[in-house]
Amino acid sequence: MNELREEQQPRYMEYLAFLYYLGTFFFIGRCFPMHRMVWFSFFISAILAAIILYAFYRYIKNHEIGKWLLLSAMLISIFIGSFSLYCFTDFFHTCVLNDTPIWLFPSAFLLVCAVMAKKDIHVLELFSRLLGPVILFLLILADCSSISKIELPYTHGFLTFDGFINPSINAFWGSTILFFIIYFAEGFVLLTLLSLRKKSPSVYRDTTKGLFVSVILLAITYLVTVLALGPEVFELLTYPVYYPPGLTQTAEYLERIEVILLAVFLFSEFLKFSLLLMMCREAVSFIYTAFSNSSTKETKASYQ
To answer: Helix/strand/coil (H, E, C) string of the chain?
Structure first.
């Protein structure tokens, strides 16, 4: 029985976390204008979130996950899902499927995610294990292709206070706080969901590893985009990461790199929404069972 229980515990959590965190800031441009130092905000906010999440994980490791914690995770999942769906829908309607009804794609997308959320979490882990290395390779390929579009004049004076840091210092602190809140909220949900299945130090270690791999790749993607477009143009675009790869052709056969980026973040959002819906399902099931057991005990006590 113990061996069977061990086999059913979550595996490949670093791949799961990598895809879960990856798509967070690709579609956020509609709600928060990007600035030239946004890539550095990713690092600072992820480090702060990892520290607070460690304290949170120590708490849930030493205490039983109760209904109030699950209820909080469910409400946070609803908020993250609503916010992400708004950004996601706006991007597709603006840049990809602008001739289709705005409700069509998110409805179909949520339906597919709901079907996947009914499965066991191990299905999502296997999905992330198979696609994680492929997506990692595609994202590195897209970044390498975009590097060829870097304009050397933009690299001169890079990180100088007057030319690069000072114009965006206020936006930098604002975005760092916002990204920290988002990373912590997403980590809160992920750690709660995985800890329902496995109480082990590897839960925090593996999910944090996935977080920082996604942050490093995302920061490189944004940094390359800033240097390719120039900071002034970068800050004018709603979805700046989506455009430079479309200008890139490598060896006359690798074209439309932005489609690769789109596929990468689409898979990431699919996994994230499936996990958020799964968290809501687990919370509702746990709370319903707890209240049912409580009602049964009260009924038996009244008869006695």
So the answer is: CHHHHHHCCCCCHHHHHHHHHHHHHCCHHHCCCCCCCHHHHHHHHHHHHHHHHHHHHHHHHHCCCCHHHHHHHHHHHHHHHHHHHHHHHHHHHHHHCCCCCCCHHHHHHHHHHHHHHCCCHHHHHHHHHHHHHHHHHHHHHHHHHHHCCCCHHHHCCCCCHHHHHHHHHHHHHHHHHHHHHHHHHHHHHHHHHHHCCCCCHHHHHHHHHHHHHHHHHHHHHHHHHHHHHCHHHHHHCCCHHHCHHHHCCECCCECCHHHHHHHHHHHHHHHHHHHHHHHHHHHHHHHHHHHHHHHHHHHHHHHC
Please report, in angstroms and rounded to a whole number, the separation of the first and last CA atoms in the chain: 37
Residue type, 228: A
Class for domain 13-280, per CATH? mainly alpha
Task: Report d(CA 304, CA 298) in Å as an integer.
Answer: 10
Residue 258, Cβ density class (10 Å: 0-12 exposed, 13-18 middle, ≥19 buried): buried
pLDDT tens per residue, range 126-184: 888 888 888 888 888 777 777 777 766 666 656 665 666 666 777 888 888 989 999 99
Cβ pair 22, 265 in contact under 8 A: yes
